[in-house]
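Work Package 3 (structural annotation) set out to generate three-dimensional models for the target panel prioritized at the project kickoff. During this period the team completed the workflow that converts sequence records into discrete structure tokens, so that structures can be stored uniformly alongside our sequence database. As a representative example, we reproduce one entry of 107 residues exactly as it appears in the project archive.
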Amino acid sequence: MLAENKITLASLYKILFEEEPLTLSDPCMQKLEESFHFLKTFSNDKIIYGINTGFGPMAQYRIEDESLSQLQYKIIFILAGEVHQKIHAAMPPEQGNPFRNSMSKLP
């Protein structure tokens, strides 16, 4: 599957549960890289909520650059749980539950 601009719920299902390979188009990769470099440059010496800070009560604290990857993995894990719940809720009951125990496979 080649991702151009967006990934639909049906596409996400195929990627996650039918092992459909995902390839990002060149323009998509370019936009991703531009966004990364912008944030990296823009956030230098700034406190930006959710980019280099904690959340909620911890938002006032800047996360050191060495710990940003760990923060980002935690965010991905939390969002994966939320997406899992939304996909599961959207599935018709007659299709069964292909998502049962799928969260246990996450690192």
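The first helix runs from residue 9 to 17.
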